From TrEMBL:
PANTHER family: BIFUNCTIONAL GLUTAMATE_PROLINE--TRNA LIGASE, PROLYL-TRNA SYNTHETASE
Gene name, Swiss-Prot/TrEMBL: LOC111287185
CDD domains to which the protein is assigned, alphabetical: ProRS_anticodon_zinc, ProRS_core_arch_euk
Organismal lineage: Eukaryota, Viridiplantae, Streptophyta, Embryophyta, Tracheophyta
Protein origin, superkingdom: Eukaryota
Species of provenance: Durio zibethinus
GO aspect biological process, one term: prolyl-tRNA aminoacylation
Catalytic activity annotation: tRNA(Pro) + L-proline + ATP = L-prolyl-tRNA(Pro) + AMP + diphosphate
Protein name (record): proline--tRNA ligase
Amino acid sequence: MAGVEQRQNKSGGGGKKKEVKKETGLGLSFTKDENFGEWYSEAVVNGEMIEYYDISGCYILRPWAISIWEIMQTFFDAEIKKMKIKNCYFPLFVSPGVLQKEKDHIEGFAPEVAWVTKSGESELEVPIAIRPTSETVMYPYYSKWIRGHRDLPLKLNQWCNVVRWEFSNPTPFIRSREFLWQEGHTAFATKEEADTEVLQILELYRCIYEEFLAIPVTKGRKSELEKFAGGLYTTSVEAFIPNTGRGIQGATSHCLGQNFAKMFEINFENEKGEKGMVWQNSWAYSTRTIGVMVMVHGDDKGLVLPPKVAALQLIVIPVPYKDADTQGIFDACVATVATLSDAGIRAEADLRDNYSPAWKYSNWEMKGVPLRIEIGPRDLANNQVRAVRRDNGAKTDISRVFLVEQVKGMLDKIQQNLFDVAKQKRDACVEVVKTWEEFVTALGQKKLILAPWCDEEDVEKDVKARTKGDMGAAKSLCTPFEQPELPEGTKCFASGKPAKKWTYWGRSY
C-alpha cells in the first residue's frame, strides 16, 4: 500500500480516478478496485475517521473513529470483568535493563523500539524506552506481588497506547507508529488454567470481528516462526482483504509459558509448600480493527459502517420541495429522531439549510451511516418515511406507526448482510493447493491459500525466501483449529515431506 502516507486526495499514483460528483463536490476520486491504497487513504480522511498529523506514521483519531473504539471497548471490558480480570495502568516508559532482560522478546521488538535520549537540552545518563508492549514493564512487579498460591491467579488488563517505530509503509489504523489497544497480562498456578483462558479471550476477539464489525475471521495457531517473541505459543484471529489478496492478523492471544516467569523470577509456593513458577498469558487487540472494517466493507462511495459499531445508526434528512410545508417536514424529522432515540437507536436529523438533500445524501454515505430516512411532502401526507440502506441502496417506504420495529429489523438485516457478503467474498478467495506449482499460481492470483504442511521452521523460511519479491514474501498466516481431513500419505506442498496439518498461507499486512 505504498503511497497511503501521502495525502493524495488529488494526486496521481497509478490507478484510475473517479469523477467526483459534480452536483455535490463530494465523493472519492479513486476506486477501491483500481487503486486500493489511494482509495483507503481517501475513505478514512473524507469519512472523518482520521486526520494526518505532522509526524509520519502518527494520526489524529477523530470522534467518528473513537466512537467505534468505545463501543468495542464497552463490550470487551464488561466481558473480561466477568472473567475477574481487573483494569490497571503501568507507565509508558521502560528502563533498558528491564527491556533487555528477556532476550528473545526484545530481539523481536528491537527495530521498533523508540528511545528518549534527552530532557530539555540535557542528554539522559541512561536512555529510556517507550513501551512497544508491556511484558517487561509489568512482570518485575508480578514477581513482587506473587508469593503464594493465594496470590494467584493474577489477572490484569490495561487500556493504553503503545509506540512501535515502523519503517515500512505507515497506513492509518493498520500500521501506525502509535496506536491504542488493550493488553491483558495474567498469571496462573497451572498450564491448564492458562490454556483455558487463551481460548476464552480468542473467542471474545472472534466476537468483536464477526458480531460487531461483521468481518469473518479464522481462529487458529501461529507457526513457531510467526509466534510472539518469547512466548510458548500464539493463537490469533485472521482476517483477509480480498481486494489486495493479503491476510491480516486481527488480534492475538498468547500463552507465554514460563519463559518470562523464569527471567523475572515470578515464583510462588503451593498448598504443599513446594516452590513453583507461574504460567502466563498476554493478549491484545488494537485500533487496527477499525482499519480492517474499512478495508472489508468500504465501497467507492466511502465508508460502510456495521450498525452495531456506528456512532450514528440512522440519519434523518428533510426533502422539502418548492411550496412544501417545510416546517411540517422539519417537525416530522425531529419527531422521528425522538421516537427512534427513545427506542435506543442512535439517530440524528440533518436540518442544515445551507446544503441540498443531494449533498447530505453523499456526505452521510461517505461517512458510512447504515440507514438514511428521507421525509418529503408525500411522506408527510401519507404518515410515512422513506428508508434507504447504505449497504445495498435498497429503498423502502415505512409507515410511521411501525417505525421502530421496522428500523430495528432493517439494522439487523444490514449487520447480517455485511457479514454474509464479506464471508462470501473471503470464501471465494480460498484456494486449496497440494503442490508448489499450484501454490505459486494461487499466490499470483491473490488467493488465501490452504495447503498441507510438514510444520517445519526451515521449510517456512524457504517458502519466504522463494516467494520474496516486490509484493512481499508469502508466509504462514495460521493453522486453523477446524482442520479439514488430512488423508494418509498427503505430502507437504513445499517440501514433499509427510504433511502434519493444513495451514493458511499468503501475503499479509
